[in-house]
Design brief:
With 86 residues, this protein is mostly helical. Helix content is 71%, strand content 0%.
Length: 86
């Protein structure tokens, strides 16, 4: 149960950072969704490039989650996909 709460929390933090960097207005729900998907993409890239020393924690998690969320927002912008605004 705490893993789901952790995913939502990291998704929210990385989504907020990504939408403020990209200057996009979207609802809180879509901010969390973009952050979680960015976390999945960032986690895949991180684990392919750098193997964690222990299985519980990877220090670049939030950084690559934010970069993944920025990449998703950029791709959606290039494909003219708009998120619901406030």
């Amino acid at each position: 149960m705490f893993h789901l709460i952790w995913y939502v929390l990291i998704g929210l933090i990385s989504g907020v950072i990504a939408k403020s960097v990209m200057h996009v207005h979207m609802t809180l729900f879509w901010t969390i969704v973009v952050g979680i998907i960015g976390s999945i993409i960032g986690g895949c890239v991180t684990h392919m490039l750098f193997r964690p020393k222990n299985d519980r924690y990877h220090p670049a998690g939030l950084i690559f989650s934010t970069l993944g969320a920025i990449a998703i927002i950029y791709v959606c912008y290039r494909l003219k996909i708009h998120f619901p605004e406030i």
